[in-house]
UniProtKB/TrEMBL annotation:
<dbReference type="InterPro" id="IPR039422">
    <property type="entry name" value="MarR/SlyA-like"/>
</dbReference>
<dbReference type="GO" id="GO:0006950">
    <property type="term" value="P:response to stress"/>
</dbReference>
<dbReference type="InterPro" id="IPR036388">
    <property type="entry name" value="WH-like_DNA-bd_sf"/>
</dbReference>
<dbReference type="GO" id="GO:0003700">
    <property type="term" value="F:DNA-binding transcription factor activity"/>
</dbReference>
<feature type="domain" description="HTH marR-type">
    <location>
        <begin position="1"/>
        <end position="131"/>
    </location>
</feature>
<dbReference type="InterPro" id="IPR036390">
    <property type="entry name" value="WH_DNA-bd_sf"/>
</dbReference>
<protein>
    <submittedName>
        <fullName>MarR family transcriptional regulator</fullName>
    </submittedName>
</protein>
<dbReference type="InterPro" id="IPR000835">
    <property type="entry name" value="HTH_MarR-typ"/>
</dbReference>
<dbReference type="Pfam" id="PF12802">
    <property type="entry name" value="MarR_2"/>
</dbReference>
Length: 151
């Protein structure tokens, strides 16, 4: 059962990623960076990495790619020139909206095959599994694993 769940989750993620790439030109990981900036405003790269629960180097590589596409800007911090702040551009906001719409469309295709009662049952089961896998560190920092309704 666990392997089937992991295989399905991977397949759904790949489908969403493909749909976002073909429609908006963004991968899911790049979209998540833009979403964090849209939600929190300008962030230091370390804050962005923490908000995403990723290694700073991974986030730096994503931010560099987004900067090349003019979706974000990076600037030296006024107080500490070693730190970089990252901001979402207008083009980034527009691209993010297109990516989110593409992702929503892909997820509706998958979850639209379930009726209301099945969706409610699945959401309850996913919440229970999320609680079971949440580490104490996740709970302290307020990080949660996104469920289908949050993606």
């Amino acid at each position: 059962m666990g392997l089937a769940f992991l295989t399905l989750a991977y397949g759904v993620r790949e489908d969403v990623d493909r749909h976002m790439l073909s429609t908006a030109g963004l991968s899911l990981s790049r979209t998540k960076v833009l979403q964090a900036l849209a939600a929190h405003g300008t962030l230091h790269q370390a804050q962005l990495a923490d908000a995403l629960g990723q290694a700073p180097r991974s986030v730096t590589q994503i931010v560099e790619g987004l900067e090349r596409l003019a979706l974000v800007t990076r600037a030296d911090d006024a107080d500490d020139r070693r730190r970089k702040t990252v901001s979402l551009t207008d083009k980034g906001r527009t691209t993010l909206a297109a990516a989110e719409e593409a992702g929503t469309h892909a997820l509706r295709k998958v979850f639209g095959s379930l009726d209301r009662q099945q969706l409610a049952s699945l959401q309850a089961l996913l919440a229970r599994l999320d609680t079971a896998v949440a580490s104490p560190a996740d709970a302290r920092r307020g990080h949660r694993h996104p469920t289908a309704s949050q993606e």
